[in-house]
Amino acid sequence: MSKDSDLEAYKVPPTRTPVSERTTSVPNPVTFLQTVFNYVVDAPVTFVREWIERQQAKNKFYYYHQKFRRVPDLSECLEGDYLCYFEAEAQWRRDRMVDQEIVEIVRERLGACKQREGPNQFQNCAKEMELLAQVTQAYQDKYGDLGVHGNARTCLMKQKHRMMEERKAQANASQ
């Protein structure tokens, strides 16, 4: 291969990039529109957003979780006080969700203990198993047999019937 054939195949790029020659004196409309958009829309929006961020940085608000005040139980509501009924129902639903999460957390702790201990799980995780049994029994006593559409009123009635049965059982035991 000769050196001349290589120059023919791979031509050397020009040393200076040529300047584009304008054939018209009218400015490029794309550049003009970009500049107008930047000054009319983007700059004010950016200024406002940065100003708001500076104001928020001055007074930081740490949001962990929403705290609700405790409302009266359904048994404490006056007859015909529908707002109290509604608040008691919402409180009962929040309490039910909290109790569900407690059961789930204890169940996850037991699962982690079983995973960690392996074959010795029955010996080393007995405390977690007992805690899970207590928590699930308490949850079942309070919310069991209510079904999907359970509400505060049916839960209160279930609690009342359970207390009446316990009193009857005590009366029968004392006789």
Structure commentary:
It is built from six helices and no strands. With 175 residues, the chain is mainly α. The N and C termini lie far apart (119 Å). The model has no long low-confidence stretch (mean pLDDT 87).
Explain the layout of strands and helices.
Elements: H1 3-9, H2 29-58, H3 82-117, H4 121-124, H5 126-143, H6 152-174
Helix pairs in contact: 3-5
Summarize the structure.
The protein has 175 residues and is mostly helical. 67% of the residues lie in helices and 0% in strands.
Notable traits:
elongated, 175 residues, mainly alpha
Net shape: elongated
Question: In terms of structural class, how would the helical and strand content be classed?
Answer: mainly alpha
Over all CA atoms, what is the radius of gyration? 37 Å
In whole angstroms, how far apart are the ends? 119 Å
Our count of helices gives 6
The tally of beta strands, per DSSP, is: 0
Report the average pLDDT across residues: 87
- Summarize the amount of helix as a percent range: 55-70%
Order of helices and strands: HHHHHH
Strand content: under 5%
Largest sheet: none
Low-pLDDT stretches are none
